[in-house]
Specification:
The protein is an alpha/beta fold. The protein contains ten helices and 13 strands. Bound molecules: nicotinamide-adenine-dinucleotide (NAD). The site of nicotinamide-adenine-dinucleotide has 29 residues, from helix 1, helix 4, strand 5 and strand 7. This is NAD-dependent epimerase/dehydratase.
């Protein structure tokens, strides 16, 4: 958990979403005051304990968002609210840019006016690397996005860096690999998609031959990294990943063993905007914070299984 000892005000945009709600849960175990801004477009109110958190329902692009930030004057912002779906970004490029670039700017501009502002933590993505092929991907590799989503995330980073140069705006960018875990909301990732198909004994769809690889990082490790990032004193960009590369076919086989289901996948054409291989070095963040991923893919999937079973019991 974070090392900030004195009580601070922390705003989590997108705090009702998949990653954000985990961050909120973790922060509630600290002395800090937790604020959430979310338009509930994919997140749910019930994802956070509203009794303990101040929730502002609004769009990050709105005047209301600016006013709220000025009113609560957070010391830290963890900016997670975004359009996160690569396919949506291909179909609606303006919408994607509007939320991910203009929305980020709107939140950042409000923070710039706060006298006691300490750091802006921005959730970026491996999609920024795009066709950059030298693995493992290091933070100084040239960005080559191949989707509007990767482009809009990169632009968000660029505005933060520029404002740091211009007015010393304090920021920390975390580029996440492929995040997975039990989720009730948001865009389907490959693991939750496979999961839903497999438990209904349907064929999962694999785009391409299934030998493409990804670096899968468990959501609890991401939440932990976001909180540690509040203490990172050096402005800059950090990858958050396991540093392991797993093919989509291997994911399917680990899941088949875990769920005791055998299904034959349906192979379809490759999708535009998908990279062939991905693996990110996490050495830079490890060195600065001591963070280590606690979950291998097998362990993360087991944990996800447990959480899904608990959900069924609660319902
Ligand atoms: N999940 C991943 O694999 C992954 C990988 C890399 C980066 N990221 C980044 O992490 C962040 C969180 O992703 P997630 O997986 O939790 O997604 P999510 O969709 O579950 O959460 C996003 C939250 O933001 C809210 N939101 C969306 N647009 C908004 C707007 N205009 N104004 C206010 N709120 C808005 C949604 O209601 C939702 O609660 C995003 O910035 C995403 O780009 C995620």
């Amino acid at each position: 958990m974070g090392k900030i000892m004195r009580k601070k005000r922390i705003l989590i945009t997108g705090g009702c979403g998949f990653i954000g709600s985990r961050v909120v849960q973790n922060l509630l175990a600290t002395p800090h005051e937790v604020f959430v801004m979310d338009d509930l477009s994919s997140g749910h109110r019930s994802a956070i304990p509203e009794m303990l958190v101040d929730l502002k329902v609004c769009d990050i692009r709105s005047d209301a968002a600016q006013e709220y930030i000025k009113e609560i004057a957070p010391h830290f912002v963890i900016h997670l609210a975004a359009q996160i779906d690569v396919q949506v970004s291909l179909e609606q490029q303006q919408l994607d840019a509007d939320i991910n670039i203009m929305g980020t700017l709107n939140v950042m501009e409000a923070c710039k006016e706060l006298a006691d502002f300490e750091r802006f933590v921005f959730a970026s993505s491996a999609a920024v690397y795009g066709n950059s092929t030298e693995l493992p991907l290091m933070e100084d590799a040239a960005p080559m996005p191949i989707s509007p989503y990767g482009m809009s995330k990169w632009m968000g980073e660029q505005y933060l860096e520029l404002n740091n140069e211009m007015v010393d705006f304090p920021y920390c960018v975390l580029r996440f690999a492929n995040v997975y875990g039990q989720k009730e909301t948001g865009a389907k990732d490959v693991i939750s998609d496979f999961w839903d198909k497999m438990i209904h004994e349907k064929s999962p769809i694999i785009h391409g031959d299934g030998e493409q690889t990804r670096d899968f990082v468990y959501v609890a490790d991401i939440a932990e990294a976001l909180i540690l990032a509040l203490n990172v004193r050096k402005n800059g960009i950090y990858n958050i990943s396991t540093g392991e590369q797993t093919s989509i076919n291997d994911v399917l086989s680990v899941m088949s063993d875990l769920l005791q289901v055998t299904v034959v996948p349906e192979n379809r054409r490759n999708r535009i905007g998908d990279v062939r291989d991905s693996r990110l070095s996490n050495a830079k963040f490890q060195e600065v914070t001591g963070w280590r991923p606690q979950y291998t893919l097998a362990k993360g999937l087991e944990q996800m299984h447990l959480e899904k079973q608990e959900m069924v019991l609660v319902k």
